[in-house]
Amino acid sequence: MRGFLKNEAMKMSNGDYDVLYALVKDKKLSSGKSFEETLAPHFGGIDKLRAIEREAPLLTMFVPSLPENSFSAEKWNSESQIPFVAIRLSNTNDVPIISPEGEEYMLDSELIPSYPVVVIKDNERMMYKGQHGYELLKSERVLTNSEGVNYKFVDDVFDNELNTANLHRGVNLRTVFDYELDQKLHDAFTIHNPADGWQRDYIYYNITPTNIVSPLRYDFVETITYFEIVDNALTIYRQISNAVTGDPYAREGKNNSGWTDGNFEIRANAFVQGRNGIANVPNSKYLNGATLFNITYRSEKKGFWPFRSTYYYINTVTANPQHINMPLVPWDLSSYSTTFRIDFEETDNPTIVTSKITQSAEFATNFEFNIPLGETAKVGLKFGASSKFTETKELTVSQTLTSNPLGTFVINFADKIITEPYDFSKADPLN
Fold first, then answer.
1. What whole-number distance in Å separates Cα of residue 151 and Cα of residue 143?
2. Which range has highest mean pLDDT (106-115, 117-126, 300-309)?
3. Please, are residues 172 and 228 in contact by the beta-carbon 8 Å criterion?
4. What average pLDDT score do residues 52-80 get?
5. 157-174 b/e with 16+ CB inside 10 Å = b?
6. Residue 38: enclosing H or E segment and its boundaries?
């Protein structure tokens, strides 16, 4: 059973070393029995075990990574190491813990074990059908156990299987293999790259040098696919991590290291200037601390026996590129300007404040109602033979009171989707 737990934890199904009981209970162990069948005799039978499951549908076993590589899922020698069992409670930070010999005691919240331990807790990254807020989740996949209970991830960022399927195997997330792209994107590059044309002309309008009149197609949506913190990661971490507002933070001090629970809310506000004004198209993703940052610690021993203790301090912080997949809108050039502005922030406080920004934008005018097509069509490549015009508008921007700005960038309709063909000679031969 220890080997089974280790292997399931290593899958990091929700981005952490969590094993949600309801989704693994029917899996077979090396003995040929299911996990549930193996546990049942210790709980007075299957019926009592299932009653516990119904009472706690998010019951989870967590294998923590402890300081100085003293224990983790990777380092767990499940053949010989019998772990202590800790229980995370909702009404106290102190942790009841049971030794392999069955002794019970309370672990002070400031202390972190240096010995093998498995934590019993609720899963904070998944929800079950019937739980308040479940129906509001927009996560892509629904997981169903043998009892017919549906589960969703709180956010797709925690769905490791989904993200692994989407994740490019290279270092630069802007780089993808050719077979991972829709054929129309390949065609847009082939058609418009030689003449340095607008690839979105073909993607949204099917416009080519030989087909210059076409209406908008709604097959594609502008999407922020990933972002990366490229500045000093330690500075950004210090800026956005705030224990008071519930952000994750890396614990430092006496016998203390590792991330607290909680998530950073990374919010993108896309300002889309239309002919009738400017619209704010917001989208958010939740990322936990260990997903967004890699932190290493240095340790120091201080004090004199018997009060000598180990203190942990942050040594380095690096940032991980993130797949976020935030859809915006199809780029209807007859209604929207040729540029979108996108502001990124880390959101802390739900209190909203407003401010005003002024933004100038260019609009294409080469659109007309096409009688044979029966709809408005774009006429000509780029701006066509007609002129463009510039308009300046004022927008009231809503921001959270204590948000931390992370950056602003502008994308243009003329920007390339594919910048160059993928060089297969540089591909990882193992993949």
1. 5
2. 117-126
3. no
4. 89
5. bbbbebbeeeebeeeebe
6. helix 35-39
Q: Which amino acid is at 255?
A: N
* Whether the predicted pLDDT of 6 surpasses 90: yes
Among candidate residues 355, 318, 363, 312, the one with its CA nearest the CA of residue 110: 312
Q: How many residues in the chain?
A: 431
How is residue 250 annotated by DSSP?
Answer: B
Instruction: Tokens 């880390």: give the residue.
Output: 346
Which region among 120-129, 191-200, 242-251, 321-330 has the lowest average model confidence (pLDDT)? 242-251
Classified as helix, coil or strand, 164 is helix
Residue 60: its pLDDT value, please? 95
385, pLDDT greater than 90: no
How far is Cα 164 from Cα 173, in angstroms, rounded to an integer? Answer: 13
Q: What is the DSSP letter of 93?
A: S
Q: Are 247 and 264 in contact (CB under 8 A)?
A: yes
Nearest C-alpha neighbor of 387 from the set 412, 362, 411: 362
For residue 343, how far is the Cα from the chain centroid?
18
pTM exceeds 0.85: no
**Contact between residue 215 and residue 335 where contact means Cβ atoms under 8 Å apart:** no
Q: Is the pLDDT of residue 176 over 80?
A: no
Which tens digits make up the pLDDT trace of 35-51? 999 999 999 999 999 99
CB 295 within 8 A of CB 22: no
Q: Cα-flanking dihedrals φ and ψ of residue 40, to 5°?
A: -50, -45
Residue identified by tokens 């400031």 is 110
Return the closest-CA partner of residue 67 out of 322, 304, 301.
Answer: 301
Q: Is 263 helix (H, G, I), strand (E, B) or coil?
A: coil
Q: Among positive and negative, which fits the CA dihedral 68, 73, 76, 81?
A: positive
Could you give the C-alpha distances from 186 to 175, 199, 200, in angstroms and in order? 14, 10, 12
pLDDT digits (tens, 9 = 90+) for 15-26: 889 999 999 999
Strands (E), 76-219: 84-87, 95-98, 104-107, 117-122, 126-128, 143-144, 150-153, 213-215
Contact 225, 167 (CB under 8 A): no
Contact 301, 310 (CB under 8 A): yes
**So what's the pLDDT on residue 20?**
96
Which distant-in-sequence residues (6+ apart) come within 8 Å of 34 by Cβ?
25, 26, 27, 28
pLDDT bin (cut points 50, 70, 90) of residue 99 is very high
Q: Which two tokens stand for residue 208?
A: 């080519």
